[in-house]
Design brief:
The protein is α/β, with parallel strands linked by helices. The protein is built from 8 helices and 13 strands. Helix 3 packs antiparallel against helix 6. About 40% of the residues are buried.
């Protein structure tokens, strides 16, 4: 048995890999600063004194845990390597093929990946946590499913100024319906928005921020593949923002299956490499 844990800001992901190679994923609300007791509580049916090859850990404050839990070795995996390894594996890319791995979680991190090497390039504090925080302030809810339902029924054009609202036509590659000012219409007294439109505006703001950052980085690095992992892209309108931005730059956008546990998978794979070497 091999296990891994990604201690996220809002969600902790765990993986168990059986001798047959089957992966079992679980997610729970964030558990606070990790320690050995918390790790054991995440796997109550397992005996850490035997039958576990290792536990791989990554994410927030993962280095607080020692090198052994009872008799089970602990492998500490840097978050950048975990994100890069997991995203690259899920996307089924060739090792020599460079890619930008975008971890869109509570915040957003951009990792350059090539030949099994991973480098943090940039990021932004804007991400899924921003959607939840602004929604709590403006909509009175931080429930992701409710926010998604509201945003799917709303129109960001009610909250945002579009290019065609402020100039006579498109600018450069941007079409006339591109956003000119996020939430700009709300600042004027003659515009109001319902909860659905506000939700759409929030998700659009976050999606476009992530999209503009990631596409600019991909172009500067001459990378054509962008792999998006994390839970934030489950917001359909945010995913649409990412897709529209990459189309303008002729980039390939990949949303691999099981992207929500990419970091936990990457930690597991890095640990396997560690023991194989």
């Amino acid at each position: 048995m091999r296990i891994s844990i990604d201690f996220g800001i809002t969600v902790t992901d765990t993986l168990q890999k059986t001798k047959a190679g089957k992966l079992e994923h679980r997610m729970i609300p964030a558990v606070g600063h990790p320690n050995a007791r918390i790790v054991k509580n995440l796997f109550p049916s397992l005996d850490f004194s035997r039958n576990i090859d290792f536990v791989a850990i990554t994410g927030g404050h993962y280095q607080l845990i020692g090198n052994v839990i009872e008799k089970t070795p602990v492998v500490h995996v840097n978050e950048v390597d975990a994100i890069g390894e997991g995203g690259f594996d899920l996307a089924c890319l060739q090792p020599s093929q460079p890619a930008l791995i975008v971890s869109a979680g509570s915040g957003t991190a951009c990792i350059y990946a090539k030949h099994g090497q991973y480098r943090h390039i940039s990021g932004t504090g804007v991400g899924g946590g921003t959607v939840l925080g602004l929604s709590k302030l403006l909509l009175g809810t931080s429930n992701p499913r409710e926010i998604e339902e509201l945003s799917s029924k709303g129109k960001a054009s009610t909250t945002d100024f579009l290019l065609k609202d402020v100039v006579s036509g498109p600018i450069g590659q941007l079409p006339s319906n591109a956003t000119a000012v996020n939430f700009g219409k709300i600042a004027t007294s003659k515009h109001s928005a319902n909860r659905e439109d506000l939700a759409a505006g929030i998700v659009n703001l976050v999606g476009q921020t992530i999209a503009r950052l990631t596409t600019a980085i991909a172009v500067s690095l001459q990378v054509s593949e962008i792999v998006v992992v994390g839970r934030t892209p489950t917001f359909s309108s945010l995913r649409h923002s990412l897709e529209q931005a990459t189309l303008l730059q002729n980039l390939k956008l990949l949303f691999p299956k099981h992207a929500e546990y990419a970091s936990a998978l990457g930690a597991l794979l890095q640990a396997e490499k560690h023991f194989a070497s």
